[in-house]
Amino acid sequence: MTITIMDSSTATNNQEKYRKSGNNNISEVVNMDQKRRWHDVFWLILFVIQLIGVGFVLVILGVNRFKKKNRLDIDKYTYRFMENEAGLTEDYWPLYAVAGGVGTALGWSWLLLLGSRAIQMMKVSVHILTTYLAVISVLCFWAHQFFWGVAFAIGAALQFLYIISVIDRLPFTMLVLQKAVKMVWNLPEVMRVAYAFMAVMLLWMALWSFGAAGVVASSMGDGGRWWLLVVLSVSLFWTGAVLCNTVHVIVSGSLIRVSIHGGCEAASLPTNSIMKSLQYALTTSFGSICYGSLFTAAIRTLRWEIRGIRSKIGKNECLLCCVDFLFHLVETLVRFFNKYAYVQIGVYGKSFNRSARDAWELFQSTGVEALVAYDCSGAVLLMGTILGGLITGTCSGVWAWMKWSDRAFMIGSTSMLMGMILVGVAMVVVESAVTSIYICYAEDPLLIQRWDHEFFNQISETLHQRLQHRSSRAREVLTHDHLDSRIPENA
């Protein structure tokens, strides 16, 4: 096993070498209004085909039960799975309208309170999510829904264990989030982009919920309905992730330009900055966004959980060996799928894989990866997103339970996904600011120092401490391995 020991002086020297190597300085690249090439076109085409195909299916499924049962005579193809007549599309569509309304209200409220109550809202999300999951689990068991009860109970347990494992990191995480909120709040153009994309997502959800309501109202058995809803939910998840990451690319590209011009308070955005970022995100870089959106979220979530478990295992060598195997596997995947790729896409216009690789090599070579691994801002924002989805799903699910108890969990689970996506569009604005801060610090620390000198000192001190911590742990491992190798000789 090879262990690299890096202290703060080594990290600083590597940072200088990286910037003096073949990579262009970030300030020079951003200021160049260069023509960009199209990347990952296959995934762009695949996403568009998926969007058109699923849209067509949604219309068919919704219309088949709209105002008249089996209007398009689809039931003859599913007669083997038919159980009973469930109703009409318009019976269930208002329940999804509630989900869309609650999710939009939560997302817009988050953006409105971003400047004054954002940190308090994130703290509440961290502390209340475990309790909320546990309560829902109990309610599911009470309703004789064993599967959902177990699922939410496992979720509550994992959430609790994760919070315990990272409790010492939360002060630094909240500091980074506070500075990210400061960056975003001083850019009203960025806020308007988030509102606009939330409106676009809501329009797609109106069509999606129309088809989903038709599935719930269909005469198929529960098995057929669940499978159709799962397929439609995967499509909705990908579409939502693409829209969220499009906002990510637009916001991060704009924030990088702001940092180069002296920070949010020192100078305003160039006149066409937002429009340029929007143009690149929706044209040449859109294929890369579609590609990364398929895998990034799942890999990030798995990485957070494994890191949290790994830090609390202790001296159980057998378990540590198994977790280390998973850890290194996930770390390899992170090299090719990480959220920092979207900043590189927005700034340089690279393909997704190259952006992810370059971002990870930048962090590794400068030592900033130690800081990124210590920060839990992405997990905290995800907790807020999940909480928003749970609230949305609860509102629709309770109403559905009062009317049709056997359909409540179908409607509640899909409504929860809708709420998570809508709230996620709001949360991604802050996450974009966080990723921009780390990319700027790795590329050129002076960008952060000019923007906020006190924050620069705090983040530099934390990086120094983390590198010292890693060096001491690496020396302990080397010493332990050396002693173990000498034991047979002295025995």
Description:
The protein contains 20 helices and no strands. It has 491 residues and is an all-alpha fold. Helix 3 packs across helix 11, helix 14 crosses helix 15 and helix 18 crosses helix 19. It is found in: Cell membrane; Membrane.
Please give a quick description of this structure.
By secondary structure, the protein is mainly α.
Roughly what percent helix?
Answer: over 70%
Shape: globular
Helix and strand string, N-terminal first? HHHHHHHHHHHHHHHHHHHH
Major sheet summary line: none
Radius of gyration: 24 Å
Strand proportion, as a percent range, falls in under 5%
| Euclidean distance between termini CA atoms | 24 Å
Structural class: mainly alpha
Number of strands: 0
- Overall mean pLDDT stands at 80
Number of helices: 20
Are there runs of 5+ residues with pLDDT below 50, and where? 1-5, 17-24, 264-268, 480-491
Topology overview:
Elements lengths: L7 H13 L5 H6 L9 H23 L25 H24 L5 H25 L3 H21 L3 H16 L2 H29 L5 H39 L12 H10 L3 H8 L2 H16 L5 H20 L4 H8 L3 H15 L1 H7 L2 H27 L4 H36 L1 H7 L1 H38 L1
Helix pairs in contact: 3-8, 3-11, 4-8, 4-17, 4-18, 5-6, 5-17, 6-12, 7-18, 8-9, 8-18, 9-10, 9-11, 9-14, 9-18, 12-13, 14-15, 15-16, 16-20, 17-18, 18-19, 19-20
